[in-house]
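Lab meeting, action items carried over

1. Structure of the two-component assembly. Owner: GW. Status: complete.
Input record:
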Amino acid sequence: MTDASWRPGAALDALKARADLLRTVRAFFDGRGVLEVSTPSLAAHAVSDEHIDAIEVPGHGWLQTSPEYHMKRLLAAGSGPIYQIARAFRDGEAGARHNPEFTLLEWYRPGFDLDALVDECLALLTPLCAAGAERHRFRELFRAVTGLDPLTTTATALADRAAGAGAPAGLSGPQAVDYLMATVVEPALDPAVLTVVVDFPGWAAALAQTTEDDDGATVARRFEIYHRGLELANGYQELLDADEQARRFARDNEKRRAAGKRPMTPDPYLLAALRAGLPPCSGVALGLERLHMALSGAGRIDQVWPFPRDRA
Amino acid sequence: MASYSTSEFKSGLKLMLDGDPCSIIENEFVKPGKGQAFNRVKLRNLKTGKVIERTFKSGDSLEGADVLDVTMQYIYSDGEFWHFMDPNTFDQKPAGADAVGDAKQWLKEEDLCEVTLYNGEPLSVSPPNFVELEITQTDPGVKGDTAGTGGKPATLSTGAVVRVPLFVQEGEVIKVDTRTGEYVGRIKN
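Predicted assembly:
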């Protein structure tokens, strides 16, 4: 251990900027009558998403990968609009833009459709980032940058295109689209604007409602916001149907098994809350460190996170 | 040899790729939205020195390479092999011309070098960052020049040729930075 290893990796200025950002966020939601809540970080159940792995705490359960399930239970119990600044934990997510422990600003708006929530995100982000916004549909954006339609192109053609961009061979269609989105499409976005991407492919719905686009293809009522080359926020018009949710849990677990991952027990409390009735709502999760990185021009999450994971 | 998952990748980790031992230079985690995560990895092939870029699906794993960096003392060359000794165990290892590579022009008996062993055999040799070597040939300098402007070539006892200031003379011992091949200063006896 070197002598300076106890020292924080982020500059003290970054800590002050984070405190300012938290104050701005709280003032924004206070002004709009959205209630701040706190839900457990440690719980008996965790997400079943194929590509998100929770960290297990033996004898206690799982560190939450987002506060979504608990917040939906509050909504079903009649909380009205709520927001939370929550610590979240994801196993294996470590790199220049990822830390296994991070902070999500997550909020839910009963009565909002997806467009209304996008508008609210931009009302928060436009003045903070001092940037204008552009909206794109996933399918058109992907096609414009890669020349391939992400919904109708064969898996083989998508995988070939991804391999041409450096991907490992033999990806599935969705994996190839994920790869091309992260390595080809995202870097092509104008870093100076807030780019809102809507109507994700149906397979990427997670906990969002699905609908048909003009061509009859299934798309998710989901959006993402990118700025300065960073993915900042991910929002859904929330799935309300408990049976569909149970089917998605089962499908997730099939995919997890196929990928050699451990299946996760579907959260019975979330399913019961959906059965009791989640009010029609939209919700979004915004990575607070990512926003801080975009605002400060930091290239690495360690610059805005006081102690890097290997010295925490 | 153990295998390593992408979540254990970090710079300096030695892995087998396409049958050759490689060392990770950079590991970048890429994850789009809630989709499949990837690790984009830059590696140096330890046999050829070539830098390779490769992307793996996160969760994939690679076999570790039996590669070890040890500090060894250079003892002598028999013309075909350069012989190194572990100063703790006195264990000796011969390194061929491929393994010694450009390091050979800096090797002086008894100097300590970093030797990279692959399956127990020398794969590459890094000379010390600074070596002190005697000048065996250089033209006489111009009288009065002390600033070292321009300089002149000097051949060292190992055969290496470096640029030295004009005032440096044959028979003197100089300090050289082996990473740049540049003259650092004279060693006064």
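2. GW to write a short summary for the group page. Key points so far: The first strand of chain A starts at residue 35 and ends at 36. Chain A touches chain B through 33 residues (CB under 8 Å).
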